[in-house]
Amino acid sequence: MNVKTNIMEALDNLFSAKLRSFLAILGILVGTGSVVALITSSQLATEHALAQFETMGTNLLAADVQPPQSGIVSSQQQTSALTLEQMPEIQRVSPQIVEVAPYITLFQSIYFDGEAVNGGQVIGATVALADIMNIRIAKGRFVSYLDRSNPYCVIGSSIAADFAAKGVSDPLGKQIQIGDWLFTIVGVAQPWASNWFFLADVNKGVIVPLDVSYSLSQYAKINNLLFRLVPNPDIPSVQAMVLRELKKLLPNHNISFRNPEQIINIMKNQQATFTWLLGSIGGISLLVGGIGVMNIMLVSVVERRREIGIRMAVGARRSDIRRMFLMEAVVLTLFGGLLGIILGLLCAWILTEVTGWEFHFLITPPLLGFVVSVLVGIISGFYPAHRASKLDPIETLRSE
């Protein structure tokens, strides 16, 4: 018997027991679909995050400046902080530094016409922040150095959408209350892709002049610095120079750094871990489906004992019987695997539509799903096929 004949007979036998075949296919479909959907979604999520860093560029550096723990140093040292006037001095420590953007993050209650606004994060910043983090303005303008004594602000796209839901299509010139202060809206930011590099959400935030942010809270201090460097910078060298300068200004503060390349490597490692984890979860589903196929094939062997005996009586070899049942198992799992691949890709596509990620076809997850489904068919069908080939033809003919 050739392969084509085996496949045709396998299809005939599977269609003769539609419900049983459907249940077996369903188990493989769910398992393969889980593997394809989970791995594809994981890879697309990582690619989406990496694309954001590629847009920003890798010539960036961030420094976090945190005060020392209470009780270790004097209260004067705890309350000391960086000032805007020190930024030129910090920038001059290395010719590789093009621009420095200090910023302050605060959480304050925000109200418009007496109603709470969706958000609550206030970002005290200079125009350098917009340059470095690629914050674009949809309406109006960004806050500038000239606004350092004026209560002006820029709202994020999510807050602007909240305004629109309340019937305010153009928020420019409107006033919002932040804490005890009234701020006039002078700009609306475009939707901004959040990332792990900038520790604030522009979409849900309100950006105010850095000098003005000091008036909002006694805890308002410059605790974050962003640096834009020359192309292809020597980041470790710049980091060492900046650290030395910051330690000179704030000797007892805790200072940490991060850069896009460092975060990209972390994300790639996490993606690899998640891929194995999610693949294992899908593999468990496939294992359950494979056990289901094995049980169904064993039932098929019992029900078709007389058929097996007749085939052997007319000249079929044991290897032919083994091949016949093995082919049925492979066709069953392969059919379920192909449907699972389609279902998995469809689920991944739906996820990208919901999250706004870019969907594109990745060859590895479907190929992995195809190969695994074939292997599951071979493994789960081997024992029933072997058991069928070992039946005594005389005993099988007597069984009915």
Task: Please describe what this structure looks like.
This protein starts with a helix and ends with a helix. α1 (3-16) crosses α11, α2 (18-56) runs antiparallel to α12 (364-389) and α9 (260-303) packs parallel to α12. It has 13 helices and 12 strands. Helix content is 55%, strand content 16%. A hairpin with a 2-residue loop joins β8 (175-178) and β9. Residues 72-78 have low confidence and may be disordered. It has 2 domains: 3-53 and 265-398, no CATH class; 59-258, no CATH class. The chain has helices spanning 3-16, 18-56, 75-79, 87-91, 127-133, 157-165, 210-213, 235-249, 260-303, 305-313, 318-355, 364-389, 393-398, and strands spanning 60-66, 97-107, 110-112, 115-116, 121-125, 137-140, 152-155, 175-178, 181-189, 205-209, 224-229, 254-258. Strands 1, 2, 3, 4, 5, 6, 7, 8, 9, 10, 11 and 12 form a 12-stranded mixed sheet that branches. With 400 residues, the protein is α+β, with helices and mostly antiparallel strands.
Beta-strand portion reads 15-25%
Q: How many alpha or pi helices?
A: 13
Distance between the termini: 26 Å
Number of DSSP-assigned strands: 12
Rg (C-alpha, Å): 32 Å
* Unreliable spans: 72-78
Largest β-sheet summary: 12 strands, mixed
Decide which structural class fits the backbone: alpha+beta
What is the typical, i.e. mean, pLDDT? 83
